[in-house]
Write a structure and sequence with these properties.
Elements lengths: L1 H14 L1 H13 L8 H13 L4 E5 L3 E7 L7 E7 L26 H16 L8 E7 L8 H7 L10 E12 L3 E3 L2 E4 L3 E8 L3 E2 L9 H18 L7 E9 L6 E2 L2 E10 L2 H21 L3 E8 L4 E3 L1 H15 L4 E3 L9 H7 L2 E9 L20 H21 L1
Helix pairs in contact: 1-10, 2-4, 4-10, 6-7, 8-10
């Protein structure tokens, strides 16, 4: 039975590949920013309705939820999630499907995730007699912007009525060749907090520094000191990253400014250390500034928690992926300090988030995520839907036997 189902999914995934390329290119050409995915949501709804798939629109404003019911649909439910938003990036690719929305780009593969889940919907809708239970499809807005769309979707009841036993999601990875997928057992991604510092001094003439309080010098000392928190206060076995990525202060060569703005990100995998580090950074930044005659405020926009994959679910999913693709196409990956609001789902129910390879070195496809030249090998739109449909059915079988 499994061999028949596996072969059927592979054949149908191949047959719908060209259609999914068209869907992905449409999404890529019409990207929308977080919490603004109105046309994207309309397009997804129209596409699903053409497949006669019932859905709920307007979930957390621009999200959608669809149910694919197999035999005995009340027995168990498994959820699958895709994110639908894009990034504020000017696309540099010269391709026929280049973004038509100036300054907005699908540079993180959410067009692939969405097209793939649409493909999963089509596959599962044609296989309803082959599985028991229900598969819930979640098209989630606003993964790219704090506080993230997952919180609103969860608050809207997406993990209830019916309540899933588990949830799975996939994310493109330009470090993995197309046709392969990657799993991480346990902690997969770090938490992510945005840091905003304002260093205040006293402006003055650059030739008379003794009459001013230089916030640029204070800012430089704070930046160095904050890094010492990472190297001297954090347990060396706990991954932590502090990157201060933006500094703005002053406008000309001979004027000491009154204030300097600094912003960046702090990431870790330990929630206790995360809280401690927040307080240590605030105390240190303020202390350094005051010791030098100025002041500093640090605002922390707390972002997503670390993503912790459920060990049992991930092990089952990895084994199912090997059965579908072959062992040579399933790779084990290490923890990364990227961040994902899929973490919120995984805090509520067992979750498995895995990577989808999109790299093709022969065609120079493999630029990093969040860059103006990011693109994918579109063969992933055969692998992605096929694997996810198979994993969902196999996971349902665990809970409906």
């Amino acid at each position: 039975m499994d061999d028949y189902l596996k072969d059927t999914i592979k054949k149908r995934a191949k047959a719908q590949h060209a259609t999914l390329i068209d869907i992905r290119r449409h999404l890529h050409m019409h990207p929308e920013l977080s919490f603004q995915e109105f046309n994207t949501a309309k397009f997804i709804a129209k596409t699903l309705k053409e497949m006669n798939i019932a859905l709920q629109e307007g979930v957390a404003n621009t999200g959608l939820v669809a149910l694919i019911k197999g035999k005995n649909p009340d027995k168990a439910t498994v959820a699958l999630r895709a994110d639908i938003d894009a990034l504020p990036i000017h696309e540099a690719n010269e391709v026929p499907y280049k973004s038509k929305n100036e300054g907005v780009m699908h540079a993180c593969g959410h067009d692939v995730h969405t097209a793939s889940l649409i493909g999963v919907a089509k596959l599962l809708n044609g296989l309803k007699e082959e599985f028991e239970g229900t598969i819930k499809l979640i098209f989630q807005p606003a993964e790219e912007k704090n506080p993230g769309g997952a919180i609103g979707v969860i608050q809207a009841g997406v993990l209830e009525q019916p309540k899933p036993t588990s949830i799975m999601g996939q994310h493109v990875n330009p470090n993995i060749p197309v046709g392969k997928i990657g799993f991480v057992k346990g902690i997969m991604l770090g938490s992510a907090d945005e840091l905003y510092l304002t260093v205040t001094g006293k402006g003055g003439h650059a030739a008379s520094p003794q009459l001013a309080v230089d916030p640029i010098l204070i800012a430089a000392q704070i930046i160095v000191s904050l890094q010492q928190i990472m190297s001297r206060n954090c347990n060396p076995i706990v991954p932590s990253v502090l990157s201060l990525c933006h500094i703005q202060g002053g406008e000309t060569t001979n004027v000491i400014p009154k204030a300097v703005q600094i912003s960046g990100t702090f990431r870790t995998t330990d929630e206790r250390w995360r809280r401690e580090a927040h307080q240590k950074m605030k105390t240190l930044a303020s202390g350094v500034a005051k010791a030098m005659g100025g002041d500093c405020t640090l605002d922390i926009n707390q972002g997503y928690p670390c993503l912790n994959n459920d060990l049992a679910l991930t092990q089952r999913s990895r084994a199912s992926a090997i059965a579908f693709l072959g062992a040579e196409k399933v790779v084990d990956m290490e923890l990364s300090m990227w961040a994902e609001d899929f973490a919120y789902y995984a805090q509520q129910i067992p979750g498995c988030f895995y990577y989808l390879g999109v790299k093709n070195e022969a065609h120079d496809i493999g630029p990093c995520l969040h860059t103006p030249t990011f693109d994918i090998d579109e063969r992933v739109l055969e692998t992605g839907p096929g694997v996810m449909a198979w994993l969902a059915i196999q996971e349902l079988a665990v809970h409906t036997r």
